[in-house]
TrEMBL record:
Protein name: ABC transporter ATP-binding protein
Location of this chain's protein in the cell: Cell membrane
MF annotations from Gene Ontology: ATP binding
Organism domain of life: Bacteria
Record's bilayer topology term: Peripheral membrane protein
Keywords: Antibiotic resistance, ATP-binding, Nucleotide-binding, Transport
Alphabetized SUPFAM superfamilies for the sequence: P-loop containing nucleoside triphosphate hydrolases
Organism for this UniProt entry: Pseudolysinimonas kribbensis
């Protein structure tokens, strides 16, 4: 057995008319990695996934799965996918849908085990046409895992799931990845990426703008926000605050002032020394949301992105 990466994308480019949806993406994902693919709407996540699976052909570059073509990997039963547009046959029951896929694969999981993993045992006899959005997602997950794949690619797997269902979903995924399988999932839930992935890849306008561990990605916006209220803002407040130690940016909304700072202790001391009337003080750590916005902002600093590639 060769030890090629689970996914190797080299210089992938895909155009739709004037639009370049994927613009030179090069990315390797090793076996056993759990990777979150993030990006704003239209960033090119689904198109990249389609190219990786060989569902559409790139204009430039190539995609390899386990060292072979996507088709070879899929025929060998090594890939399970849950895609946004993927539909199940409405007249079949959930169990029949899973059985159908299991029958087409060489080394499927037992159908009952796949149903247990995807938590669909209770809806096994329901027709697909009658499923709710969240139930449908679970059924599609069961269909993706029953082939017993080495690589699982999921496009927004928890869209339409309620909070409880999302929790259950990630628990069953955790068990799945503990067996050393590779998982790539696109999501808009940054908290899911933060807590579940061991690597985060961010796309923006078809380009890879960040690639690192959750901690590395969040470190892009290291520092904190010092925020406070000031009832009557003196003239020149904004300019004065901008010169205090550690300050990177100052924002004011009504009487509330928020300062992004690299050194919250020094900034806070200086603020209280200069403006003793400041009250309702908060010091807030930056989150994955902040990192995401900083990296995908139109005016995102190239240097910021450079650190994560
Ligand atoms: N078949 C197509 N024909 C024309 N344009 C397309 C096609 N598929 C995607 N696009 C365009 O390519 C861009 C990237 O779309 P894609 O679906 O890959 O983004 P995404 O990151 O998955 O977005 P979302 O988070 O909204 O699902 C978008 O501007 C989209 O409108």
């Amino acid at each position: 057995m060769n030890d090629s990466p689970a996914i190797a994308l080299h210089g992938l480019r895909k155009r739709f008319g004037q639009l370049t949806a994927v613009d030179g993406v090069t990315l390797e994902i090793g076996r056993g990695e759990v990777v979150a693919l993030l990006g704003p709407n239209g960033a090119g996540k689904s198109t990249t996934i389609d190219l990786a699976l060989g569902l559409s052909n790139p204009d430039e570059g190539d995609a390899r799965l386990f060292g072979g073509t996507p088709r070879q990997a899929i025929v060998a039963g090594r890939v399970g996918a849950m895609l946004q547009g993927g539909a199940l046959l409405p007249t079949l029951t959930v169990r029949q849908s899973i059985e159908l896929v299991a029958a087409a694969h060489r080394h499927p999981l037992p159908v009952d085990e796949a149903m247990e993993r995807a938590k669909v045992t209770d809806i096994a006899r329901q027709r697909v046409a009658k499923l709710s959005g969240g139930q449908m997602q679970r059924a599609r997950f069961a269909v993706a895992v029953v082939s017993n794949p080495d690589l699982l690619i999921l496009d927004e797997p928890t869209a339409a799931m309620d909070v409880e269902a999302r929790h259950v979903f990630w628990e069953s995924m955790r068990a799945f990845t503990e067996e050393g399988r590779t998982v790539v999932f696109a999501t808009h839930y940054l908290d899911e990426a933060d807590s579940f992935a061991d690597r985060i890849v961010i796309l923006n306008r078809g380009r890879l703008v960040a690639d690192g561990t959750p901690a590395e990605v969040k470190a892009v916006v290291s520092g904190r926000v010092v925020s406070f209220a000031l009832d009557a803002a003196p003239a020149g407040l904004h300019d004065r605050l901008a010169t205090l130690p550690g300050v990177r940016d100052v924002e004011r909304r009504g009487e509330r002032i928020s300062i992004q700072t690299a050194d919250s202790d020094a900034t806070l001391r200086a603020v209280l020394a200069d403006y003793p009337a400041a009250h309702d003080v908060e010091v807030i750590s930056r989150t994955m949301d902040d990192a995401f916005l900083a990296l995908t902002h139109d005016a995102a600093e190239p240097a910021l992105q450079e650190a994560l590639r």
